[in-house]
Write a structure and sequence with these properties.
alpha+beta; Pdz3 Domain; four-stranded antiparallel sheet
Amino acid sequence: MSLIGSGFLTIFSFVFLISIVVVIHELGHYWAGRFCGVHAETFSMGFGPTLVSWRDKRGTVWRVAALPLGGYVKFLGDAGAASEPDADKLALLREQMGEAADRCYHFKPIWQRAFITAAGPIANFILAIFIFASHALIFGDEQVQPVIGFVQPGSPSEAAGFEIGDRIVRVGSREISGFMDISQALFDRANDTVSIDVERDGTLITLVATPQRVAQEDRFGGTRNVGQIGIGPFYEPVIGMVVEESRGAAAGFRAGDRVVSVDGQTVETFGQFNTLIGERDGELTIMVERDGSQLEIIADPVPLADIDRRNHAALERLGLGNELVLRQHQSFTLLTAPVEGARMVWTTVTSTASYVGRIVSGRSSPEYLNGPIGIATAAGQVAHVAVDDADSVVEGAGNLLRRLIFVAGFLSVGLGLVNLLPIPILDGGHLVYYAYEAVARRPLSMKAQALGFRVGLVFVLGLMLVATWNDLNYLLGQIF
């Protein structure tokens, strides 16, 4: 793909994602306002100069603006995000508005204002549930079973006592249903003691491990530091692919061969095969089973000094890939799909909240926070994978739409959760103000609200700076 085409795909994907989640967020505010009888003066999809606009029968101006990066809704009486009128200002405003005051946001009961405010994040959560439920209903869920097939020598998992065949049930408080869940539960827990429940020979036992910090390179050349304990999924010792013109191909390996032993040492999993290939230099005598008969193959792998990753030694030294057997597919119905959607949203919320809590307590680094640049980068990467893996334009377009919508579900959860933080200028900050008003029976003074706004603005700008720094570090890692 050309540089121009690559850039266009990234920009399109970013705009698509941001537009969906922000417009739905604002629609949540809008529909809650309509339910409570509040007049919406303007609903804008995007910012900047107006491209198209129209007025509906309720008097709301709907506009499509030049910068498609979200949107906003403006209710009657809105003056700005910094504060709401105090008691004196409200009295003057009511006098000025006359009968129109009944349709003004500020003169609605506290519970209605709180409902309108909370409706934005709620809409984001509902959108995410709908996306995840639809994906589960249409495509089902296919995961690698959380059964250990590889324990890296000298790793935290070996020190903790993990064994091949252990089924991981829970990491900390997170239930585990697939191997990807394990990675997600550990990625930000480097150097943090974690309790892990495993099922071994029908008995549930608890092991304690301290994930180590590992620089992990993705397929785009970027590097992220993640927490890992040195385990891999259970792969049968079956050759799934043989790279053309590799040393494995030259030795005579074929897809479907089952590895029996390496230099006389029995092999039971592909992880063990990888380990043995990564430990021995020089010629190897490898016994395989093919078509019901055993066959001895003499292989001359690439020297150990010439490879980068020993945990991928079979691929890098011989050009041999594995065939995953322990894969489980789950189908969903119209009744169970929404439950799965809600479960995914709840898991995302709790894991994110847990991470934020660890940042506050100093147990985790804020290096995993991402800003607009990071979102755009991730959107572009997802788009490129969808397009590059397709065999036709139609398939590529379908893959792109499917994957972007799925990512929009996670982004929607994130937007909803962030907006509920008790920080002035965010929805959660306004909810805190309403809670004060409900207890004190009067609004917080405009001076106090403005002060809270300034503090909140500094806090949010600080988070954005940290997130942008993380994004730039990742991008520079791709370049250099």
